Amino acid sequence: MIEFQLNVDARLLQSLLPEIEKTFAQSYKNKRHLFKCPITDDEDLIHAWEQGLADDSLEDRLALAKIFKSPKFKYGYVELEESDAEAALRSLTELRLSLRENALSEVRDSELESGNLSLSRRQSSVKVAYFTYLILAEIQESLLASE
Amino acid sequence: MSFSSLPVPVEVEQTKSESSLEKPWKVIVLNDPVNLMNYVVMVFRKVFGYEEAKATKHMREVHELGKSVLWVGEREQAENFAYQLQRWRLQTILEEDD
Predict the structure, then answer these.
(1) Domains of chain B
(2) Closest to B39 (Cβ–Cβ): which among A52, A100, A140?
(3) Which of B9, B30, B39, B68 could be B62's S-S partner, Cβ–Cβ 3.0 to 4.6 Å?
């Protein structure tokens, strides 16, 4: 079992839970270019490719859902089986990509990469999305550290 | 099972040109601002079996140059690698090696 405590205030985390839930739902609809087959001249391959990745994605989401559904998560406590770690890592990436393409679409790549994001001038929806983005990254970092 | 029960092989129409199958293909990962550096290194190690140093070198290429050629070789294996990389949500393309 992998267990760790997020370095985030529980009240802040709880205020972001609706955004995490929304992002989780939104990412499912946003498969798009992530699952784009790089071979374009084989219809059968394209179909198998995209369907296969979509099926894999569903399994990954189940692993991540276990973290979010835990009653301890709202207090910043993360626990999951080691066998679910890789799937959860992939799904966390999917959620962060979804945030980047939607709520954080106005943020420049360089700002996201460097973390030098001036929040004072941003709308509250961008601030909420960015804090959610950071929390998802922290879960990923901790999972990577446990690998 | 007796051999007589095996299906008779039939000639399948060739859908890919021989030249495209024989040419080496490059597996290329593109940069994105989202994925963590240590995540990318971990993926390269898992997918290609690279040592930490080699995986890190490729990660830096992706980060600094915008892309890195991770592997060059036979098309079917290249497709397999690309599929695995996309499963890890890394932007991956394939190109014929000229």
Answers:
(1) 22-96 (3.30.1390.10)
(2) A140
(3) B68
